[in-house]
Amino acid sequence: MSQTIVNPKKGYRLSTRSKFAWRIAQACVWLVGAGILYCLLFYPRTGLLLFWNILIPAAPALLVVFTGLWRNICPLATTNLLPRHMGLSKGKKLTAKQSGILNLLGVIALFAIVPLRHAFFNTSGVATASLIITLVLAGIIPGLFYEWKSVWCSGLCPVHPVEKLYGGNVLMAVPNAHCTNCMNCVVPCPDSTVTTHPVSSGKTIYQRLSMFLITGGLPGFIWGWFQVHDEQKAGLNNLFVAVYKMPLIGLAFTLTIFSISYTFISRKFEKKLVSFFAAAGVSCYYWYRIPALLGFGKSSAEGLLINLEGKLPVWSVQLLAGAAAAFFFYWLVARKQNNKSWLLRPPFALKTQRLKPGGTV
After folding, report:
1. From residue 180, how far is each of 220, 290, 348, 360 by CA, in Å?
2. Is 3 inside any structural domain?
3. What pLDDT is attached to residue 182?
4. Which of 91, 174, 243, 308 has the smallest number of CB atoms closer than 10 Å to its CB?
5. C-beta atoms surrounding 18 within 10 Å
6. Distance CA 114, CA 107 (A)
7. How many distinct structural domains can be found in the chain?
8. How many CB atoms are closer than 10 A to CB 113?
9. How many CB atoms lie within 10 A of CB 168?
10. Pairing between strand 174-175 and 343-344?
11. How far apart are CA 85 and CA 214, in angstroms?
């Protein structure tokens, strides 16, 4: 294979020791993910507990504080980037329009999949495992043809728009543990570009629309989702109405508020408005999720991690949820913007030709 010429003066390159440490971390998290997938198939009660009541509740807070860390160790990303690391990818590049369309499809996928937790995924290990396997295939197959993170991690992944919304004021940038050289597969790179306005900074109408939907609609969507219980006995038509009705009503409500606010607010306050809606979304999530995890939810059986009802006063759980909300509003809205990217950009490749297996040059 031909080599890629790299400009060593631009970008941060991992040392051999650091790369090894990150590979160990990626392997450990990947094994945890594989273990959860195994449990979902063969020990569904344990698998559902681990996935929906431990891993997923921790994810939003991690995205707010340390988006780059998650981008480095996400087990789906590790799997989907294997073709590139092994030198099997053709390294094609998406156009800006194609990238924008993928971003929009990722948002649509998020709004389509999450309500189905109440219909299937919360109570079925096989269904949740099938979802995970489908997402892996949706990323790894295009990874055989397209460059680095362009199709999945920065495109079609349903979590990526939430990363862009929540990751507006991260703690610090960490080295990029996947991309050995920057191939400009996505412009601007969401990993290495200093935090930009997620609504107005998109290059295409599709990117701007995707972030407009996620920014304005997510708080209401989350609120609506928590108004629905797991549905198992309803007919198919009634089932879909039951699980989608309240999330979509909530989405429409907050999206309308955001649209009006965005129209009339001064341009210099746009980013603050986006930060407010981001904080509202993640705070709403933990306002409901923390009580549910501890047995104080609307239904004691749904979303339960450990039942502390009767052992803790109700006010203490409400105080904990309120403290979480206060933290997120401080972190995203009140805290000074530190203008940090999620990851440190690796050296630029000056000729976008194929790399040797493992990403070496």
Report:
1. 39, 39, 9, 7
2. no
3. 86
4. 308
5. 12
6. 11
7. 1
8. 14
9. 22
10. parallel
11. 31
| Closest listed residue to residue 305, CA positions, set 320, 290, 317, 318 | 290
Whether 354 maps to a domain, the answer reads no
Residue 63: domain span: 16-335
- Position 27 scores a pLDDT of 96
What pLDDT score was predicted for residue 143?
85
Q: Is residue 1 domain-resident?
A: no
Q: What is the reported pLDDT for 3?
A: 42
CA of residue 157 relative to chain centroid, distance: 7
- Determine the 3-state secondary structure of 147 from DSSP: coil
Question: What is the pLDDT, as a whole number, of residue 234?
Answer: 56
Is the preceding peptide bond at 190 cis, omega within 30 degrees of 0? Answer: no
What dihedral angle (degrees, nearest 10) is formed by the CA atoms of 341, 344, 347, 348?
A: -20
Q: Which two tokens stand for residue 345?
A: 């950009």
Counting as low any pLDDT under 70, the low residues of the chain are 1-10, 195-202, 232-237, 300, 350-361
| Cβ density class 183-219: b for 16+ within 10 Å, e for less | bebbeebbbbeebbebbeebebebbbbbbbbbbbbbb
Considering the entire predicted model, what is its pTM? Answer: 0.91
Distance CA 128, CA 348 (A): 39
Residue 107 is encoded by which pair of tokens? 């948002």
Which candidate, 30, 25, 57, 55, places its Cα nearest to that of 174? 25
> Taking every pair of C-alpha atoms in the chain, what is the biggest distance, in angstroms?
67
Please indicate, yes or no, if residue 182 is contained in any of the structural domains: yes
- At how many degrees (to 10) do helices 125-143 and 16-42 cross? 140
